[in-house]
Amino acid sequence: MKIVAISDTHGNHEKIDIPEEGDVLVHAGDFTDFGKGFDDFITWFEKAPQPHKILLLGNHEWTNIKDRRYGEIHPQRITLLRQDGFPPKTSVTIDGHIFSLPGEAPDADVVVAHAPPDNLSPEGDISVRAGLAIQQPDLFICGHAHAERGVFNHTAQTKYINACCPDGEDPFVETI
Hints:
With 176 residues, this protein is of the alpha/beta class. It has one domain (2-175): Purple Acid Phosphatase, chain A, domain 2 (4-Layer Sandwich). 14% of the residues lie in helices and 23% in strands. The strands form 2 sheets. It has a 6-stranded mixed β-sheet with strand order 5-6-7-8-10-9, with no helix packed on it.
């Protein structure tokens, strides 16, 4: 399975060249500029060539569209992972691979969070680190810390991708 990973586009999603390849497109949050550009992003994201799309909210969305716009994300076309939904949607299985939020599905293949773990970034989150220690997925995708964009083999088990693309950088493509 090929996964295309992006994050922190902040309304600059049109600058990103999404490859035709890939089974799943993951956006790890901060797709708006504090709520601006929501409609344009959702239209763009839905049209991406990958048949499966997973979206998280970042701090830019939490502070601006938390409870106002979720109903406009079409669940048939985009899976919105979140812990506070009605009901919460904390994991999804695609072609036998489990995608999960940190600490939610113990047998997750791919864990996605907006923030990195606190042991990799000063902008990180201790709960992300705790979830990853339990889950030990093959792949972890995050964003939030723009200066720390890149791929890291942090553990023997897990490859970490900080997929920040605030200025239209190329997405990451990873096979699991």
